[in-house]
Each structure stands twice: as C-alpha cells, then as structure tokens.
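To: structure desk
From: M.T.
Subject: fold request, one chain
Message: Could you run this one when you get a chance? Sequence is below, nothing fancy, just the single chain.
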Amino acid sequence: MRDPIAAGDGARFIEALRRALLLHQSGRSALADPAYRSALALGPAHADALHLYGLASLEAGAAEAASRLIRRATLLQPLSADYHANLAHALSLAGQRQGAVAAFLRTLAIEPERADRRCALAAALLVLGERARAGLELRLALALDPQLALAQFHLAEIADAAGAGVLLARSLAVTADFAAAHYNLANRSAGLGRSAAAAAGYRRALALDPRLMQAFNNLGQGCKAAGDLAGAIRLYWRAVSLAPPDASGWLNLGSGLQADSRLEGGRSAYRRALALAPHFAEALSNAGIASQELGRLDAASVLLRRALAVRAADPVVWNNLGNALTEIGSVVAAYRRAVELDPNYREAHSNLLFALNYLPGIDCEALFGEYRQWADRHARPAYARIRPHDNARAPERPLRIGYLSADFRSNPIAYNLIGLVERRNRALYQAYCYAQVPRPDAMTERWRAAADGFRFG
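Reply: Done. Structure tokens follow.
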C-alpha cells in the first residue's frame, strides 16, 4: 500500500517524481538522486518511488543502497514479482548471494512460469556452489523456454567437457551475438590446444563486448605462447586499462614484459599487482625472479620467501629461491625441498646436482649416488624411446656435432667456444645447437648464424 501524501503535496510529489524519472531515463542517475530524495521527502512510503530510486542507485553502482530501497518497496507491495526480482539483482551485486536466492524464490512463488527468472536463480546458486540445485532450475527453465540461450550457457558451466561444447553451440545458435558464450567456447578451445580457434573466439567475443577484460588477458596468453611478445603486451595493457584494480591483469603484463627482457617494467607491473593483493604468490614469485635476473639477490630472496609464506608447498618457488640464494648450504636445501615436493621436477633436480658439486664435505661416492638417482628418475624412463642409429655410415660425409647448452648467450662459455664453431671446417663438420635460453641476445644470434641448425628447447 502507498502512504497518504499530505494534502496539497500530491501535485508537488508527482512533479518531483516525474523530474527524477526523466533524469533517470536519460542516463543521468547521479542527478536523479536528489530528485528522488525530494519526491520521497513528500511521499516516504511510496512503493514505486522507492523502487525507481533503488534502480537508479543500482545503475550508479550503489548496490547496497539500492537493495535497502527496493526491500522497502517489497514490504509495501509484497506481491510485486518485479520488485523481488530487482531486489535479488541488487543483492547479488552487493555480494549478498543467499539473500538474492531468497528474493528469486519469492519472485518465482508469484510467477512460477518465468523461465528467465529461474535462470537468474540458477546463476545465483552456481555462485554459491550449489550445482545440483542450479542444474534443476536450469532444466526447468529450458522446459519452459527451450530457446533460452542464457540457460544453455549456464548449464554448460556444470556439464562435462563434451556436453559444455554442445550447450554453448546451442546457446550461440539461438543468440549469435552472445559475447560470454563466445568467450567460454574460446576457453574450451584453448583447453583442448586449439589455439587458432581460441584466438578467433576471443576476438569475436571482444568484437561484441570490448569490455571483456579477461578475453584480452587470454588472447594475450595465446600470443605469448606463440612467441608474439609485442602483441601479448599490447593486449595485457588493454586488459589493465579496462580493470586497473585487477591484480591478475598486472601479473600477466609483468610476465609479458619480463619475457621480453624488460625487467624493470615487469617489476613495476608486479608491484602494482602486489599493491592490490599483497599475498599474491605468483606476483611475489615472478617479482623475485625479475629481481634475481637484475642481480638484486637480496630483494629476490625476500620476495620469494614471502611467496613461500603464502604457498609453502610450491616446488617452483623453492627452485626459484635456490636460484636467488648465495650460501651453498641454503641453495642445496632449497633445491632439495623442491625435489621432495615434486620428485619429477627435472629442472630443480638438475639444479640440485649442479649445486652439490660445490657443497663442502660431500664425497665422490655420495655425489655419484645423487647422479644415479637423477638418471633412474628422469633418464631411464626414456630409454625405451631411444631409436637405433639408422644413418648411413659413410666416412666421407660431414660429421654432425650437437651442442646442448643454456649458455648460448652473453656468457663466458659462449665466448670461449664460439670460435671453435665459427672456424670449423664446414666441409667436414656440421654444428647443430640446442639452446635452453629464455632470453636470446646478440651472442645467441651469433651462435645461430654460425650453426647449421639451431633450435630452442
């Protein structure tokens, strides 16, 4: 019921509400706020005014204020399904998911045949992790409206991989310009290793909704994996410009800059991520690696220990800490802990063997035992895949020599050996290099030019 407006105030109330509604409908929600206040000062229990003011507040980003206003409207008109539905939406945006579910249920008690509202209820249940209840509501929604694309979309979220693809395709068959469905289908393609299809899906999603920050991030990840660092960095910048408070966007930007050897830029991006999320383990770890590569070993070890305080069982962080430490006993302990946490972590195990060579007091037998353990764990499983040498044993053909190293870069070993390869008798000897170099430089290019074959591994 509406409150009785004081005698003589009816016309003033109607004019104030009309002015507020005009401002609201023209998209000027901030200016509508004082106009709605004026109207409610004249009719403080007018349900429509409370509801409309709540919607304007919601559009202005004030979800909690909106939910309070719309709740007052529902108390005055408890049989208005629209009021309860909008209250549910406001509560969802305010993070009050249980309250949103309750409001959706009240809406459906009034209008049980509304498929769209069953779908909205299911979306709220999915956020709460109630997948079974959500699935039931989605199937009821589709029984009421088989062409409801949003219900197909949400049902894909709880289906298996094959079913999800079918449901997303059905959703797009109904609504071809459904940006979120294109995005989720692209994620599925990326998970299956179909990088071209994933990139096309992300680009289609962004063409429909240029505000999809995560699509920029994921498209950037694809560019980075393909070696297009400049393209990846441009996409990461777009992502952080859309959502500056999102720490994961700054993490991705930092990783792109770091991979492009722009270490200071990477550290700056990681600092932004950590200002937003001080316990962000990935950002702490990556910032530690960048600091180590810049030679700032003390800063690196501090950052990596902070990462371990968050994620103590992460073998990658322990390995990175071993790379940053300088006291050999601590270095060995860090690598050994990484191997204990992941016995199949070959890089950490290799680092452990390297460090043990410098550990005072270790005897040859113990060291050889460590090497045998590495071989049993990492090399022996590959023995069955070794093929017999079926090359022609013609003594007159050039001898092919392979070089495997992580030092095909500005490094003393690379400088010492480059002359041997550059000045070899090319008629008699071929040089094939297999490089484990994360950031090639001018020396890498010199080795590439000198070799008959050069591959990054």
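Reply (cont.): DSSP finds 24 helices and three strands in the chain. Let me know if you need anything else for the meeting.
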